[in-house]
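Justification of computing resources. Each target in the renewal requires a structure prediction run like the one illustrated here; the chain below, 601 residues long, is used simply to show the kind of job we budget for.
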Amino acid sequence: MSKLFLTVLGMSFTSCYIILFVILVRLLLKKAPKVISYILWGVVAFRLIIPFSFESMFSLVPQSANTIPIQRETVYQYSLPVNIGTEAADSFANEVLPELNTEASVYPFQNYIKAGTYIWVLGIIVLLIYSLGSVLLIKRNLKSAKLIEQNIYEAENLKTPFVLGMLRPKIYLPVGLNVEERSYILLHEQTHIQRKDHIVKILAFLILSIHWFNPLVWISFMLMSTDMELSCDERVLKEMGEDIKKPYANSLLSLAVGKHIVSSIPLAFGEGNVKGRIKNVLKYKKPRFWIIFVGFMVVITVSICLLSNPKLLSLPDTNEIHKIEIENYSEGSSLGVATITDKGDIDNILSNLSGAKKTMKMSTNDYPAQNNYLVVRLMLENELRTLCLYSDGYGYYIEEPYIGIYRSNRELNDAIHKIYTEKIDMLNAIDNLNGDELLEAKVTEQETVIPNLSSEEKTESTAQNREEIVEFEDFDKMGITIRLPENTNWIGNPVCSIIDGKIAQVRYYDKIVETEVTLRVGKEDIQTLAGINCSFDNEREIIWNDNIKVQFAISDNKMEGVLASWNYKEYNCILWSSISDEKADVTSIAKTAMYISNHMQ
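Resulting structure tokens:
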């Protein structure tokens, strides 16, 4: 039921734009026959009850109107400031490296949806019961009505003519109408029946009941009812002549007084905006042919444009893409290529590209006829798709060579440019991090030789020097070198060892997370190395520096620790720390993993 509620919510959200557009067109068609405005409300009804539509490049529906913004139940944001060692480098790296923050904000969205669903269903039930009760009350009051002819009845306790019934509609008239009034009132009500207005209004009320929470739908229902009555009034004047305008208006006024009928159910002669109907009757003139022709052309055009969804750029799923390459061209020359493999970044890129709308322009070249553009290459298993992003000075476009040109917007273009710039800057920052300029001198090497050990023994060697001198080399049993970051302000008391003759281990105290961190390198799987038996929160997983995965272990919906892992040759490498505080800053763990990975030999 919640899924149905979200579907209805989405359709109602889309229809808001359609309703506003129809109201605008209705004002522009003020001099056209009201039947034209009446027909336009069918577009709104279609959008309110049909959850799908066809695509067209002529669609006037914005992409943002096709979706309703819904947050995930749990949203995580990450922040990872970097301390490289110099103030200038720290400032630069913190600006360009990905933003991470372990603070998690949990939104009980599912509970809100459930509550909203119950309220929605309750509202539908109340409206339907109220409507059904009104019909039963009217029928009880009409038991004394007398049959005059065919489906026409007269009732003494009735002040307003109306139509009641769906399969066999009946016309009820008040007693005492003169012959002239009776003739055009009957014509009015028979016009309703001929056009099936009595069925249309019942269906309209059911749609209103489903979308009762949307005030624009209530406005639409009232305006549709008004247009229905105005068009019937015009039909009577057209059939009987303009000479009856004054007596017809007087009848509207007299029969509307004292009305006690639920306007959402019957089709009453005097119902609706009486003042507006009287004005429309008195001002009525037979429309010219060209006005009718233009009006119907507008209806056809607007219907096609509003019934259809925009034809959007078709994109593959995130899981189908192995990587994305973004290359920036300025004055025809490449400024560099950024490669994106992280699924989160790929999903972000696809999300930004997805709003582009198809245009009638054709693509006839490998690249756009522009000097400055951005090339986005989607690398699939058996396919390469190339998209070119650019601006021609008047608008922003995405061109897929020989396929088509799509209209985007500045925000979309800027978002892709930002992803490219951040990626390029991050690669430059990492290059600087590994260079001699940021890692100079002040490193005292200490060699630790580990003898052959049995599976039940281990030997430990503790660094006795200053905390910032924490380099461990020559794990001879494994033929690898492990170096911890020097000149740090968070690593203390490092101890290295080899466990069971096959796992290199370093333990140290992390002053930022205020707990012990274990580094292990071996051929065992990641969880065995870490010595844990927990599941991981996939929503919070981070890929750092393209090869380091930062995961948050959970057990019984509680955080158990943070695990950073990567591969080196045939070895798996992990940094594990038992942290239960979800708001803990794990900056130092991620930085340490990145440094160790970059310096392993």
